[in-house]
Amino acid sequence: MKSRTRTLIIALIGFWLVVFGVLPILLLLFASFLGQDPEAFFELSFSLDAYRQLVDPGYLRVLLRSIWLAVLTTVFCLIIGYPFAWLTARLNRRTRMLVLILLMIPFWTNSLVRTYAIRMVLGTQGLLNTLLLHLGIIDTPIRLLYTDTAVVLGLFYLMLPFMILPLYATMEKFDFRLVEAARDLGAGFPATFRSIVWPLTLPGVLAGCIMVFVPTMGLFYVASLLGGARQLLVGNLIHQQFLNARNWPLGSATSVALIIIMALMLCVYWLFMRNLALRSHQP
Amino acid sequence: MAPKRFLQTICLCTLLCAFPASAAEKVYIYNWTEYIPDTVLRQFTAETGIEVIYTTYDSNETMYAKLKLVDDDGYDLVVPSTYYVNKMGREDMLVALDHELLPHLGDLDPNLMDRPFDPGNVYSIPYMWGSTGIGVNSNEILPETIDSWQDLWKPEFKGRLLLQDDMREVFHMALKIKGYSSNSRDPEQIEQAYQLLRELMPNVLLFNSDSPRLPYLAGEVSIGMIWNGEAWMAQQENPAIVYIYPQEGAAFWVDSFVIPKGARNIENAHAFIDFMLRPEIAKICVEENGYATPVLGAIALLDEEVRSSPVIFPAARIVENGEFQTDVGEALPIYQQYWEKLRTGQ
C-alpha cells in the first residue's frame, strides 16, 4: 500500500515535470530554430537567424547589462543578507521563528503589487522625497524612479529573502563553539571569519547567490515599472519579442540563452560542492 | 402524452434553455487603456443585459499580436488605429460590418467616413479621433518657450522627457522635423528619422502609453509627448498641464471599432457599436476622455466650455498643419526594425 502511494506520488511529480518543465523547454528550443515571418509569429522552416540576431552587438549589450544588474543585486543581497542570517541564527528559538515569519509575510502579497508600492516610495512626490524635503536634507526632489538605481533597489528588495533563507539554513547548523574555540586559540575576528566561518557557510552563500542571480534576469516587470526608457533586463527583451514584435524564434533563442547561463551556473555549483565533499573526506 | 402535459414540458424546457442563454449574453471588448468610461459600460449592460468583458492594451502592436495568438476564440470588438484597420483588413482578420444593425450610422461626421484605409466603412466605424502633441507642466517650464517638436531635443531636457510608447507617433516627430510626411514609405527618410531619434534618446526618461498623464501629474516629468485627451484629463486635476500643438504639425489619428474574425458574439458587438454612436453616450465619452467624437449629434449636446476647448477640438488650420496617420504598407517592418533598435539602445 505504502509503495503504491509512493509510486503514485513519483508518477505525479514526474508527470508535472514533463508537462510543465521538459515539454515547454523542448518547445522553446524548437521555436528558436524556426524561421521568422513578420505576418505570423514564426515560419515553419529551419533557420539560425534568431541566434544570429542574438549575438548582434545591440542585443549582446542588453544581455551584458542584464548580467551586470543581476550581479549588483546579488552582491547587495549578500552584503545585507549575510549578517542578517548570521544574527538570526544566533537568536533564541522563539525570536528566530518570529524573524523568519516577518521575513516571509511580504510573500503573501504579490510581487507586482509590492513593485507598485516601491514606486510610491521612490516617486518625485513619493514618501522618501517628501520625508527628505521635510527634514531639510534636500531642497529639490531627487530623481530615483525610472533609473537603474531604482531597478536594483526593487530587485534587491524582492530577492533578499532568497539570499537569507539558504544562508540561514547553513548557519543554523553551524557549530558556534568553533568560533569560541578559535577565539580561545587567539584568532581575531578577521582570521576567524576567513578560515572558519566563511568556508563553512560557503555552500549557503553559493546557493543564495544562484537563487538570487538567476531569477533576477527574468523579472521584467520590475525593470519596466521602475526602470526608464532603456530596456534593461533580458526578461524585457523576451517579453518584447513575444508580445510586441511577434518574433517567437528570437524570443525563444533569448530564453534558451538564459537557460544555458542558468545551467552553467548550476554546473559550477555542483562541481564546487563535489570538491568540497571530496576535500572534507580527506584526512 | 396529454396536450397540457406536453405544453408544460415545452415551457419548462424553453425556460431551462432560455434562462442560461440570456444570462450568458456577453461581449468581449479589447480596447486601449481608459478609453471608454465605466459608467458607459455599466449603462450598456443595464439596458441590454449583455455583460461586457473588458480588457485593455497599450499599443496597436500588442493588440495585433494578441489577436493573432487567440485566433478563433477571441475578442468581439477591438479599437485599432487607422493603419492597423488597413493592415488587418488586408490580412483578412476582420468581419464585414452589417450596417443594418447600426441605425445611428447616419449621424457621423462625413469627413471621417469612407476614408482610404477602409473605403465604404466595410470593416470599421470611427470611435474617436485626436492628436499627439507636446505636454508641458507650466509650473516647471514656461510654455511660451516650447512651440515645436524640435524643442524636445534641447540638451537641458536630458533625462526628462516622456515619449509615447507608440512607434508611429515617435517617428512622426522626427519625420516632421525633417520635413517629410509622417506616413513616409521611403526607407531612406525613415532611416534619417531614426538617426534623429537616436540623438533624442538621452533626453528620454520613460516610454508610456497606458496613461501618459499620470507621470505628469505625479511630477515625474514636466515635458514630453502626450495625447490631447490625456492632457485634457490631466487638466481636470492640475490646470498647470498645458497642451501644445507643435508648429511642425501634430500627429492626428482615428481609432475605429472593428470586429475581428473569430468573434463569437457578432450581434452583441454591433449592438455595442451602435450604443456608442448614440449622441448622449458619445457626449459622455468626449467629456471623460477628452478626445473628439465623429458623432455630430453629440457635439451639439456638449457644454460650451468643452466644445470650444482647443485641446479637444483644434482649429481647422491646426488640423491642416498636422498629418493624419495612414497605412504605410510594406514600410511597416522597416519602422518596426528601427523602433526595436531605438528601444534596445542601439
From TrEMBL, chain A:
Membrane topology: Multi-pass membrane protein
Major site of localization recorded for this protein: membrane
Cellular component terms per the entry's GO annotation: plasma membrane
Gene3D superfamilies linked: MetI-like (1.10.3720.10)
SUPFAM superfamilies: MetI-like
UniProt cross-references to Pfam families, sorted A to Z: BPD_transp_1
Compartments, record wording: Cell membrane
Stated name of the protein: Spermidine/putrescine transport system permease protein
TrEMBL record, chain B:
InterPro entries per UniProt: SBP, Sperm_putr-bd
GO MF terms, alphabetically ordered: polyamine binding
Protein name: Spermidine/putrescine transport system substrate-binding protein
Source organism phylogeny: Bacteria, Pseudomonadati, Thermodesulfobacteriota, Desulfobulbia, Desulfobulbales
Origin superkingdom: Bacteria
Record localization: Periplasm
Record-linked Gene3D superfamilies: Periplasmic binding protein-like II
One GO CC term on file: periplasmic space
The UniProt record lists the keyword RNA-binding: no
Transmembrane segments: none
Chain sites annotated for binding spermidine: 34, 83, 166-169, 325
Keywords attached to this entry: Periplasm, Signal, Transport
Leader sequence residues: 1-23
Main location: periplasm
BP GO annotations: polyamine transport
PANTHER family, per the entry: SPERMIDINE/PUTRESCINE-BINDING PERIPLASMIC PROTEIN (PTHR30222), SPERMIDINE_PUTRESCINE-BINDING PERIPLASMIC PROTEIN (PTHR30222:SF17)
Keyword Glycoprotein carried by entry: no
Pfam families: SBP_bac_8
